[in-house]
Amino acid sequence: MTAGATTRPRILVIGTGDTKAAELLFMRATIEASGGEAVLMDVSVLGNPRFRPDHDKHAVAAAADTTIEAVATSGDENSAMALMALGASRLARALHDRGDIDGFIALGGSMGTDLALDVALALPLGVPKLVVSTIAYSHLVPPERIAPDLMMILWAGGLHGLSGICKSVLSQACGAAVGAARAVQKPSGPRPAIGMTSLGSSCLSYMGRLRPALERRGYDVAVFHTTGMGGRAFEQVAAQGGFAAVFDLSLQEVTNHINGVVTTSGADRLENAGRRGIPQIVAPGAIDMIDFAAWQDAPAAFADRPYHAHNRLIASATTGVEGRRATARAIARKLGAAKGPVAFILPADGIQQWDQQGEPLHEPEALAAFVDEMRASVPAGVELHEIAAHINSDAFAAKALEIFDRWVIEGIVEPGVAMEGAGA
């Protein structure tokens, strides 16, 4: 955080000043009344705002290596806004890197949201990001466009002009941005970060053993819940090089994406750590399940499959033999593209809590087919560790730690940092 930001954080405010001047000026006043400083960026294309922005549309276009005149004649509103999104993202990142802003808030309909999502992705994890949008939480927004620490609020009742409802929403958003910039603790610390994936703690429970063991070794462990957005956040932190190593042990989102359900985390799940060369310990946690909304009918292709309702929001059905073989091949392809070391642990006795004997998703023949396909598909450059154990067993956790400890000794993973007063 920049000097003085603890008392007056500087919040970058982005919007189209030619059509939303009243809203942007209200936001500036609210931020200042909340103890912050507003830095206005205008991303208009055709018109001009009735106020002087701190960063005008010409500066935004220049950051995209073009001019506002070229943007306006680039083709249509989509191409124009894409260019402005590029410029706004570059300019916002430059402002952050110079220490000129401490947080970011944007206002928009679908066009403004499209731009704002790019800006949020351009800023590092730990920079407060808030988008006021007419399509907040909509399935129109693909998971790969959402920054891992993005906050959104629905722009209710404010599409054209300031109403009482609109002011209520905008004032909450501005207060949240200022408060977040004051209170945020940046994610970096003295201990190397380990990223771990899991699916809750009832379906997959290994993190109960692994996390304390890794913390004793001097690492900061972040566990991501792989129900779509959790995997997306994991991938984006990995893409930014935020992990010293990963324990990517819940790959159910890969299955979800293959089967086209809404709980996907994007096509690049299980790819970004590999692209960055981050050491990966991987296991096929819950790849036999696809998730869908429990308040809707199961997808037709899975209507007759074994089913488990986790709660009133999310339910799961199993994929069959061929579905699991397809997932095995997809996992192998992704691991084969990794630029860093990969170890794949194959727990032959089960891959989630409910696939055990007596549980609703127990299908030993389908599990055996997956194990068989995985053995055949794992690339030569990937360490394959098959164990006669369940993924939630002590033996599985012990194998993962054995691999990790060897990699630390070999210098593949940086050593942990013991905290003062911590036990061995």
Q: Can you write the helix and strand succession as a string?
A: EHEHHHEHEEHEHEHEHHEEEEHEHEH
Report the average pLDDT across residues: 94
Backbone shape: globular
Binned strand content: 15-25%
CATH architecture descriptor of the largest domain: 3-Layer(aba) Sandwich
Strand line-up across the major sheet: 7-6-8-9-13-14
Task: Indicate the low-confidence ranges by residue numbers.
Answer: 1-5
Distance between the termini: 33 Å
CATH H-level superfamily of the largest domain:
Uncharacterised protein family UPF0261, NC domain
Q: Please count the beta strands (DSSP E, at least 2 residues each).
A: 14
The name CATH uses for the topology of the largest domain is Rossmann fold
CA radius of gyration is: 24 Å
Could you name the CATH class of the largest domain?
A: Alpha Beta
Helix content: 25-40%
Compute the number of helices: 13
> Major beta sheet, specifics?
6 strands, parallel
Task: Kindly give the count of domains.
Answer: 2
